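Notes to self after the call with IL:
- keep both proteins in one doc
- input above output, always
- annotate only the second one for now

Protein 1:
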Amino acid sequence: MAFSDDIFACARLLERGDAARFRAVMAAPAPVRPKLFAIFAFNLEVARAPWVTQEPMIAEMRLQWWQDALGEIAAGGDVRRHEVVTPLADALSVQAAEDLRDLVTARRWDIYREPFTDAGDFGSYLRHTSGRLLRVAAQALGPGDSDCKFFHCRPCADCGGPSAAA
């Protein structure tokens, strides 16, 4: 994946909106940065969608737009032309696109700003937002070192994503 104008746009978006993740991507090896810029720029766009309007219907429409874009990516056909969606399509597998659809669904909670009913609900929200995002980003980097003795991934009961094991 090369550094296209769209990747540069994703990098600028991330630099302005999520400086910590921008710096983290800049610390990654150059060949993987385009994928990470696209994935994290997507997250920034989705995370801010519920907060840019006071109208729940408008926020729902913004999140539905991202659901539809991810559906196009998962289907493997043509995707809409957009500075984040276009490079995101190159960065994601079908499964990763589906995982990010779950992230968008979880972000709907932000629209209504209701408190979490308990710690379990809060944990589920975190797993389906930040947890899914980091899993997709890690998978986009390719297979890891299977000989690593410090961190092993296994599906957790809640989301099928990675969890730390000793």
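Protein 2 (the one to annotate):
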Amino acid sequence: MSEEDKKKKLYYYGKKEKRAGEVRKESAEGAVRSHRRILIMLDKGVEDSEFLYPYYRFQEEGYKVDVVASKANETYVGKHGVPFTSNLSPEQVKTEDFDGLIIPGGRAPDYMRTNKGLVNLVKETFVKGKVVAAICHGPQMLIEANVLRGRRVTCWKSVATDVKNAGAIFLNEAAVTDGNMVTSRSPADLPEFCKETIRLLQKM
């Protein structure tokens, strides 16, 4: 074999090995992405857009999104008539399996806060340092879980007095991050809400 042929052979196998390494790396990264999981809470009267927007946005980021409600495999109708189905109950959730929890607003938090299992899930997720993101009336669940004292937060305007009474510092901003908590005011803030939550998840 000539020197030229040897060089060609080495070049060919070098490229092949490099590509195999890239494939292994891509597979490993894909495996990591496939294990990222997010929970989103659900109950009747949820603000439809505040459920749908994060549900699909986090899937775009590579997260598996699970839906937790008082009952598993139950259909709940949103504030504007869209039906959504849960796949988990709080008793079926192991917080260590998830990277974070999203709490949409609407009328749903008023129902969710009466369910001890859902409230405990919020508290446990927060205490373990996982990301907890609540929008609109969602901070009502943070009040119920007693995790707001001394925190900077925002929410729907009619909930502002409640979060202050719970010991929080209210800020009228599109998205407020404090530690492992993200809060926003309304559906109009959804882009900032998701952006901040994704940014925080990438840091954790």
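Annotation: The chain has two domains: 1-34, 36-203. DSSP finds seven helices and ten strands in the chain.
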